[in-house]
Amino acid sequence: MFKILEKEVFSPIIKQFVIEAPKVARSCKAGQFIILRIHEEGERIPLTIADFDREKGTITIVFQEVGKTTTQLGQMEAGDTIKDFVGPLGEPSHIEKFDGPVVVVGGGVGVAPVHPIARSLKEAGNHVIGIIGARTGELLFWEDKMREACSELLVTTDDGSYVRKGFVTDVLKEVIEKHGKENIPLVLAIGPQPMMRAVSNLTKEYGIKTIVSLNALMVDGTGMCGCCRVSVGGATKFVCVDGPEFDAHAVDWLELGRRGAIFRPQEQQAMEHHQCKCGSGCGGAK
Amino acid sequence: MTDEKKPKKEIKPTKNPMPAQDPVERARNFNEVALGYSEEAVIDEAKRCLQCKKEPCRQGCPVEVEIPAFIKLVAEGDFAGAIARIKNKNALPAVCGRVCPQENQCEKYCTLGKKHEPVGIGRIERFCADWELAHGVKTPEVAPPTGKKVAIVGSGPSGLTCAADLAKLGHKVTVFEALHVAGGVLMYGIPEFRLPKAVVQAEVQNLKNLGVEIEVNSVVGKFTTVDELMENGGFDAVFIGTGAGLPYFMNIPGENSCGVYSANEFLTRTNLMKAYKFPDFDTPIKLGKKVAVLGGGNVAMDAARTALRLGAEESWIVYRRSHEELPARKEEAEHAEEEGVKFAFLTSPVEIVSNEDGWVTGMKCIKYELGEPDASGRRRPVPIAGSEYLMDVDTVVVAIGQGPNPLVPRTTKGLELTKKGNIVADPETGATSKPGVFAGGDVVTGAATVILAMGAGRTAAKSIHEYLSNK
User: What tens digit of pLDDT does each residue of A180-221 get?
Assistant: First the structure.
């Protein structure tokens, strides 16, 4: 059992937990993820490690409520326990000192997983330009934390309700124009698939190397089932052991999107079943 | 023949039949197919045993269970005595009695089997184990602590057996398991209808009673490594039993379409995550009306039978050789057939076809004929030119085999591997190229059977004990 030590609510749908998981905290690196299962009947879901404290033995996760498991997770409080919490999984981000400014882009809840990578890149001596964005200002979090992890930080909102109006790709374009495409060695983007795909399309035009952290469906997370497989440069890769980070320009985005939607109807059904059980007026579980 | 002087015992030529669920009914539920012997039937079956002095049956058992001895006790109605006798040698009798291919092992060498049907050794073993689980389990005696610590990586059949043996010898044993429950393939692979998960967990509990500690959610190769366990973890020896959990795909176009599963994913969702109870359990599974399972081994049979239980209208085994060459146990193929699984022999897919949304709509197949025998003596399948046709399926399960999971081999320094990535270990001792590190089961042999893995766990336990005693 893994205890939730702290809970923070960023918005009605975005929440943060600090979880007691010393084994994971001892060995995890930026870019890796965990898999958790809330209870005995639960499913295994992957979440990227957003922060860690080796001394306290804690892992920070930030998640958005998108379906049954994340909604149920969001209803848990500090002091509650999570049944299973396994990690670190996946390959760590490749961190080195690059020649020129490195751009890290975090969209929506993707700000959380991008954070430890930005921090590691900066610690490795890079000039890190952070770009974070959300649909509205209300959904934006960790601006301070990101400002600390990056050398400079640019913030945007789709609807202009905070700082400025525009997508992260608009800001990225300005950054590339300002610094010159040949001077930027790397762009790293984490967020919803459409956002990562848009970043990928943009940087492909400029010929800038771009890394994305893919969010495929997973079961075990240790390479034994291939549920998370994705085509990268024409070869089949398992996101859980070969990734989660890949060269954005080589990813088959259409296939990734389709595979991510395989269980859409069941996800809907699970959500309705859950609402039934949690007593929102329909008469309980049937 | 000296036996002829004795009054001749009347021999019942056939095994007592195993009560089983009706095929039509069981093909739609996940309850166990074989129901187990009654007390009367098991005693009657035990009395068929000739009690041969040379015990030929034992040479066929990889863990050398004292077969005639325990069967004699069953014939006398002493079930408690019988199970104690079995457990001297076998840590997982309820599992072995169910899933061992006895026809190739103990029962293959049964004297009675030369003229008649052999004694139903597996069925009697299963009865004894179930009887004990129902009547309260006695924990075997454990030797005084030796002060030595052994780490076991992987809690499948080889790891559990190795752990049990070492614990009984007084060593402190910790098992590290990557998934959230112990059991390996017994939990995620073999379906509930062949091996109820409650039975597996009861046997795992027996091991815990011996003092074995099991740490689930622990991926060795990620949170720690074998080297770290030995250098900083205080472990005196390590046994690697990580199995063959890496699924192979066909590498044909369309294999990443929606509706294509590896058998590992398909079975893990169903067995480990209980997707057949969705939405009471959260893990979903989705399949269409017509399912094709590629391959002809036991895993393929499990997947095809599972598909029927999940509601498929048609479940096909697509295999590129003929019925004769099916690598699955005969009994498994027969059960599949009884339940309504269909077989497309001498057939192999060349492409998986999907619709504009990426979902499987069919499978382009080619027919084969059998040519000359190859090096292994099996007739090689040769494609027939121009025989391509479209098979009407909407779900595909790939069950063409598994390789060793590379996480542990890759992160352990100085471990000699084969070209395929299996760990090289001495078959006599389980010793690897790295001092203090032993290995056994599928990670050494490639995908094989539960009982062979258990045999390897036993062998390694013996040499680990020797290694620790001389250390």
Answer: 999 999 999 999 999 999 999 999 999 999 999 999 999 999
CA–CA min distance A101, chain B (Å): 31
* Backbone Cα Rg of chain A: 19
Partner-chain contact B269 A37, CB within 8 Å = no
Which candidate, B84, B159, B237, places its Cα nearest to that of B454? Answer: B159
Q: How far is A126 from chain B (nearest CA, A)?
A: 27
Interface touch A226/B265, C-beta < 8 Å: yes
Out of A43, A259, A269, whose CB is closest to B273?
A: A43
B283–A219 C-beta distance less than 8 A: yes
CA–CA–CA angle B49, B51, B53 (5° rounding):
150
Q: Which pLDDT does position A273 carry in this prediction?
A: 83
B216, B249, B282 member nearest A270 (Cβ): B282
Residues with pLDDT less than 50, chain A: 281-286
Cis ω before A88 (30° cut-off from 0):
yes
Angle at B443 between CA B441 and CA B449, to 5 degrees: 40
CB contact under 8 A, B256 and A259: yes
Q: For residue B17, is the peptide bond before it cis, meaning its omega torsion is within 30 degrees of 0?
A: no
Tokens representing residue B337 in the block = 């057939």
Helix or strand (DSSP H, E) at A213: strand A210-213
Model pTM greater than 0.90?
yes
Task: Centre a 10 Å sphere on the Cβ of residue B438 and count the other Cβ atoms it contains.
Answer: 29
Closest alpha carbon within chain B to A92? B222
Nearest CA distance, B206 vs chain A (angstrom) = 21
Task: Out of A26, A86, A226, name the one closest to residue B247 (CB).
Answer: A226
Q: Is the ipTM of this complex over 0.85?
A: yes
Model pLDDT, residue A285: 38
Beta strands in B265-375, from DSSP E residues, in sequence order: 290-294, 314-318, 342-344, 347-354, 360-373
CB A70 within 8 A of CB A17: no
- Between CA B123 and CA B128 the distance in angstroms is 9
Residue B30, amino acid: F
Phi, psi of B455 (to 5 degrees): -60, -40
Residues B362 and B396: beta-carbon distance below 8 Å: no
Q: Do B217 and A84 touch (CB under 8 A)?
A: yes
Residues A187-209: b if buried by 16+ CB within 10 A, e if exposed? bbbbbbbebbbbbbebbeebebe
A80 CB neighbour count, 10 Å cutoff: 15
Q: How confident is the model at residue B442 (pLDDT cuts 50, 70, 90)?
A: very high
Cβ contact, residue pair A41, B405, below 8 Å: no
* pLDDT tens figures, B97-156: 998 888 889 999 999 999 999 999 999 999 999 999 999 887 888 999 999 999 999 999
Task: Give the rounded percent of residues in chain B with a pLDDT score beyond 90.
Answer: 85
Which pLDDT score is estimated for B3? 52
B115, burial (CB in 10 Å: exposed 0-12, middle 13-18, buried 19+): exposed
Residue A41's Cβ-side half-sphere holds a number of Cα atoms within 13 Å equal to 11
Q: With an 8 Å Cβ cutoff, are A259 and B358 in contact? A: yes
Q: With H, G, I as helix, E, B as strand and everything else as coil, classify residue B287.
A: coil
> Measuring CA to CA, which residue among A110, A109, A114, A106 is closest to residue A156?
A106
Cβ neighbors of A234 (< 8 A, separation 6 or more) are: none
How many C-beta atoms lie closer than 10 Å to residue A53's C-beta?
12
Q: What is the C-alpha separation between A172 and B110, in angstroms, rounded?
A: 75
- Identify all chain A residues contacting B223, using CB atoms and an 8 Å cutoff: 23-24, 26-27, 87-88
Largest CA distance in chain B: 79
